[in-house]
Specification:
Elements (H helix, E strand, L loop, with lengths): L4 E6 L3 H14 L2 E6 L2 H10 L4 E5 L9 H10 L8 E4 L3 H9 L3 E4 L7 H7 L9
């Protein structure tokens, strides 16, 4: 079994976090952590080595823009090298996130698509069958 990577899921509601976590743990050798907003994202990053950050387009807790978290992470020298992705179905928001330094993300409608799994496999070790 490949060594586990750690994914931080930021800003998703419980059902979406569960769906994302299930997809990730079913297909990749990962542990999934959760944060709600910037403050606990930074706290989690200080305490854990994280390999990929997934940020919801609109944070469930207060509906602020997830892009603000990506921008803050990309400005911070301690975290700017961690790949970050925006979770959104809207191409224009993906483009904004990529322009801010994020990797191209995926939408919840394509959560278990082959394209999404192939894309995530560039960052996470697939489970061996």
């Amino acid at each position: 079994m490949p060594p586990k990577k750690t994914v931080l899921d930021v800003g998703n509601c419980v059902p979406d976090h569960t769906s994302i976590s299930t997809m990730l743990t079913k297909n990749f050798s990962v542990n999934v952590l959760q944060a709600d907003r910037l403050e606990d994202t930074l706290s989690t990053l200080k305490k854990n080595e994280v390999d990929l950050i997934l940020v919801n387009r609109k944070l469930d807790i207060d509906y602020t823009d997830g892009l603000l978290i990506i921008e803050e992470l990309k400005r911070n020298p301690n975290y700017q090298s961690i790949p970050s992705m925006l979770v959104t179905n809207f191409p224009e928001h993906q483009e904004q996130a990529v322009a801010a330094g994020a990797e191209k993300g995926f939408g919840k409608l394509e959560l278990s698509s082959k394209a999404t799994l192939d894309h995530l496999a560039q960052y996470l070790p697939p489970l061996k069958e």
